[in-house]
Structure formats: C-alpha cells, structure tokens
C-alpha cells in the first residue's frame, strides 16, 4: 500500500514540466492533489491526466494561482482547507528560468520577478500552509544545480536558488521539532520545454549531454520519482537534505 494514499499534497507550477510529471506520479500513489498554476488551460490537462492516473478516482482540486501574490496564495490555502480538509505535503515547484544577463543589464523589474517567483513564493506558501500541517508532513522545495554552482550571467537566478537552499535548511530546523520535514531538490538539465538547451535545439542538447556522466538529459518523470520518495514514509529521517538530480553533471563518461 502506498504511504501517500489519501494524503493531501499541494503542487505549485503543476501545469507543465516537473510540476506536471510529479502531480501525475503522486496521483498514481493515491494522493489527493491541490494543483496550482497561472496557466489554467494547461492545468486542466494536468488534472485530466491525474484523474486518469488516480487509483481510487480521487477528487483533486485545481486553482489558477499567481505565486507572486500573497493574497492569491493565502486564498488558495483557505480553499484547500475548506474543500480537502487538511494539508500533508507541499511541493514548491513554481519558478521561472533565467535570461543570461550581466549584472549591469538587470532591471529592477527583472530582479523582482525572479525573486518573487522563485523565492518569495516558497516563503509565502510555506508560511500559509504551516499552521495547518501536522507531524508527518513535509515540504519539498525546488532549487537547481545553479543553487550550488555559480554561473556567469545568471547572478539573480543563482541568488534565488542558493536562497531556496538556505531558507529550506533553516526551516528544517524550525519545523523538525514539530515532526515536519523540509528537503530540497536540485535538478540539472531536464528535458522540458522551458529548458534552455531544449529551446536552442539538438546541437545544444547534445553539447549539454556530453557534460553529463549518463550522457543524456534527465526527464521530468525521473525528478518526480525523487519527490515521491521524499514525501514517503521511506524518507522519514531525511530532513534538511539537498538532493542533486543531474545524471553526473560535470562528470562526463
């Protein structure tokens, strides 16, 4: 029997990529999902696939959500509690990919959009959910390999992803005393439509793959498997951990 059966799990950024794949994976495990994204049309497709994957025809909740809005997040959490009655786990997956810019080229608007989407949203969602969570619950927050390794031209993005790790580790200390775990995943190059290498075409994908030990980009489903593990009872002593999912990036065969 799945340890996630009938557990209520929030997923932000659920309409595509890692968020979508993870939603479907959790649905297969029998979880009850509260799915959020700013793209309502794509979110509806995720819901359809989750419904098909659910073992027991679970009723899932979806909402259009601007994760940059504190008001939106607080209302979303109220809706989850009103309709689903509890919150067990939270997957803070919503985020935006960067544009390569030198610091002198970065506008205030770009800074705020990046920080609000990749970092503030995690803080705001966590703050809103924690009062409703009990021992045994957990958070998985999405950082990046660029939250571990500085990269020229991606200063703001790296800053947000480094900060996700720092805040998550502090939260793991605070919430651990309540039996609530907080962990971080750091995906490397994953074959999703928003991945920079994928957007630039096969030649760039092949060049990126050549820098990875496994010789290929990862899939969103492979990331989803790790998230499902971190929510499961099998990871009950995993807290404050940073899990790299990168196929051996920087260690080519």
CATH architecture: 3-Layer(aba) Sandwich
Number of strands: 7
CATH superfamily: NAD(P)-binding Rossmann-like Domain
Q: Uncertain regions: pLDDT < 50 for 5+ in a row?
A: none
Q: Quick summary of this structure?
A:
It comes from Cyphellophora attinorum. By secondary structure, this protein is of the alpha/beta class. The protein contains eight helices and seven strands.
Describe the structure.
There is one protein chain. Helices cover 43% and strands 14% of the residues. It is α/β, with parallel strands linked by helices and 253 residues long. The protein has a single domain (8-187, 220-244), classed as Rossmann fold. It has a 7-stranded parallel beta sheet with strand order 3-2-1-4-5-6-7, with helices on both faces. β5, α5 (155-176) and β6 (181-187) form a beta-alpha-beta unit. α1 (17-28) runs parallel beside α2, α1 (17-28) crosses α8 (220-231) and α4 runs parallel beside α5. The longest helix is centred in the middle third of the chain and has 22 residues, at 108-129. It is globular. The termini are far apart. InterPro entries: NAD(P)-bd_dom_sf, Sc_DH/Rdtase_CS, SDR_fam.
């Amino acid at each position: 029997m799945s340890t996630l059966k009938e557990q209520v799990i929030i997923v932000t950024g659920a309409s595509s990529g890692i968020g979508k794949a993870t939603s479907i994976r959790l649905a297969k495990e029998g979880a009850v999902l509260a799915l959020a994204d700013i793209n309502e049309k794509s979110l509806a497709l995720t819901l359809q696939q989750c419904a098909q994957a659910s073992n027991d025809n679970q009723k899932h909740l979806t909402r259009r959500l601007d994760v940059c809005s504190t008001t939106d997040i607080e209302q979303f959490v109220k809706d989850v509690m009103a309709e689903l009655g509890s919150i067990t786990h939270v997957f803070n997956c919503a985020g935006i990919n960067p544009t390569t810019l030198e610091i002198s080229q970065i506008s205030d608007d770009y800074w705020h959009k990046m920080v609000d989407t990749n970092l503030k949203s995690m803080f705001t969602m966590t703050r809103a959910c924690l009062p409703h969570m009990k021992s045994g619950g957990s958070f998985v927050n999405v950082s990046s390999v660029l939250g571990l390794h500085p990269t020229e031209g991606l200063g703001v993005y790296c800053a947000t992803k480094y900060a996700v790790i720092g805040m998550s580790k502090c939260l793991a200390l605070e919430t651990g005393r309540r039996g609530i775990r907080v962990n971080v995943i750091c995906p490397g190059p994953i074959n999703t439509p928003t991945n920079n290498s994928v957007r630039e075409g096969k030649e760039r994908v092949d060049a990126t793959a050549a820098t990875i030990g496994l010789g290929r980009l990862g899939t969103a489903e492979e990331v989803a498997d790790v998230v499902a593990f971190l929510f499961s009872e099998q990871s009950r002593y995993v807290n404050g951990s940073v899990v790299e999912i990168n196929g051996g990036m920087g260690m080519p065969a």
